[in-house]
Structure formats: C-alpha cells, structure tokens
Specification:
globular; 88 residues; mainly beta
Length: 88
C-alpha cells in the first residue's frame, strides 16, 4: 500500500461482516490528511461525535481513486479509533 495514494476527501470503508464480491463494507469516515508517517486523520464531518479521529496506516488494506479499504470490521474500527492526535 502506497501512502501517497491517500488523499483528502477519500471515503474510508471498514470490512463488511460478510464477504461478497464487489462489496465495500461500511463507510466509516472521510480522510482529512495524513499525519506524521503512521496515521490518517479523519474529518469531523460525518463522524459519530462530530470530532476528529485518527487511525493507523497499518489498518489500510488497499486504496483506489474513490476510497480507502480497511483490514478491520466496522466494530474493530470504532473500538480502535484514536480520539486525540497521536504523538509522532
């Protein structure tokens, strides 16, 4: 996975509970920007609590021109979100 492909405004999708061809899982956020060399900052808009959150780049399974697809389920995504900016 090439972090340079991660651009602002890309949608973020967590894995669905079932594996279906062409299914992208649940939309769980939108990229604000890459922070440091290891984290993605998500936009406030569209988050459950209206706040920024961060996820590690290691959660990214793949990226295309439309979205980032995570190697986490929706439940794992919400359980593991960082609510404050990471220390780089």
């Amino acid at each position: 996975m090439d972090p340079q492909k991660i651009k602002p405004d890309l949608m973020v999708h967590a894995r669905g509970n079932t594996t279906m061809e062409g299914a992208h899982g649940a939309r769980v956020g939108t990229v604000d920007k890459i922070e440091g060399s290891r984290y993605i900052k998500l936009k406030k808009a569209g988050s459950r609590d209206g706040e920024h959150h961060w996820i590690p780049l290691s959660w990214v399974e793949r990226v295309d021109n439309q979205a980032i697809y995570l190697n986490r389920t929706e439940e794992e995504f919400f359980d593991g979100l960082l609510n404050t900016g990471p220390r780089h």
